Amino acid sequence: MRVLVVEDEQLLADAVATGLRREAMAVDVVYDGAAALERVEVNDYDVVVLDRDLPLVHGDDVCRRIVELGLSTRVLMLTASGDVSDRVEGLELGADDYLPKPFAFKELVARVRALGRRTTAPLPPVLERAGIRLDPNRREVFRDGRQIQLAPKEFAVLEVLMRSEGTVVSAEQLLEKAWDENADPFTNVVRVTVMTLRRKLGEPPVIVTVPGSGYRI
């Protein structure tokens, strides 16, 4: 899952991004509304965590623009105001969910994951394929009953492949979904991660390389 965090309180923004990355999400961070508009028009995000009171361009206008573009991106709006009328107004702008500050990080993660599931076709909360059982909420992976410990990027790549339900996923798509914008597209990071993931999943191999196209399970 790829997430954009838009928050002008830099310490909070960076802390949220760090926590989401530990949950195996690819996260970009910006600190004002103008930068947010630039990112959403270039990158494909599953969820935007959007502070409402932003400098340069207000969060309301960012939300409106996302709706105008017709993106599948879901918006989780944040605000320091706990007033019901403010929450209603944010939802009427096109936000998909609303979370007042201060918030519990576990709740933020749960809401981001719930919104992320709405950007794709409905799938069960626990993914199962080829003897692999992946639980995104618990961040657990089992193969034939054996638990497998994965690094965050390995987990993210496996989740993307599992969600594709047997269709081929290109290296570029994996890079888009599992890494943030700082990833160098000319490195072999995807290939190396897939190789490590294959080794950890064990025999027989379940990740198939489709020459010139990508990978599938």
TrEMBL record:
Gene3D superfamilies: 3.40.50.2300, 6.10.250.690, Winged helix-like DNA-binding domain superfamily/Winged helix DNA-binding domain
Domain annotation Response regulatory: ranges: 2-116
Pfam families: Response_reg, Trans_reg_C
4-aspartylphosphate: residues carrying this PTM: D51
Keywords: DNA-binding, Phosphoprotein
DNA-binding region (UniProt annotation): 124-217
UniProt domain OmpR/PhoB-type: residue ranges: 124-217
Protein's recorded name: Response regulator transcription factor
Organism: Streptomyces glaucosporus
